[in-house]
Write a structure and sequence with these properties.
The structure is a single chain. With about 250 residues, this protein is mainly α. The chain contains twelve helices and no strands. The longest helix is centred in the C-terminal third of the chain and has 24 residues.
Length: about 250
Amino acid sequence: MPRPPDPASDRTGRPPAAASDRTARPAAAAQRRTGRPPVTSRAEILEAARQLIDRDGWEKLTIRRLATELGIGATTLYHHIRNKEDLLVLLLNQHLGGCARTELPADPRERIIAASLAGYDALAGWPWAAEILTRDGFVGLLDESALWHVEGILSGAVGYGCTPEHSVYIMRTIWYYTVGEILVRAHSPYVLPDGELPSYRPTLDPAQVPHLAAVRNQWHALSGQDTYPLGLRALVDGLLAQTVPQASG
């Protein structure tokens, strides 16, 4: 008579895999699918997240998608980062802290302008970062190495004679202007892929909006100009003109 199958073996006659082997198979399969070695550092996670943002946009970045990109489980990723906001702040610290620092002028007014331009340049290529930092408390999220341009604006204002309180007001106003400029440009197709300007309203009633109607045909060409540096200087001059000299003694 045929011998009954051994309950300790499978249909092929091989002994069943140990529990530890069965547990290891999904991770090994994920590694084979992605061709990546297991994640060993936060730096690898940040690099993968940055590539994902550059390729698909920051809106599509999720912890689960990043874990799939790395070939690991989402639970493993949470050992390194708390949540998506934590991940984005880490990316911002890495990006802003790694930007080349401009040597700021000794003149207080010029120092404010140079520090503001440096902050604008650092974020213009990463408009999603400016969008993350639209809330007033962003200074409390970043490391000191990422706040050097903020420090430059404050030091320039204090050097001009502003109180610490007025210096924060100046920095905050400049920041609103800078973020607005970055986000509007990021979301406005001033030039289409074929080199043409976007279409505008065919007519405007001069009786209701005479000045707007007069520049209707020039609107996109004019609004597409880079006027940030010029507007920044005018804004800084206006803010500093409000400065009340601190009382001596």
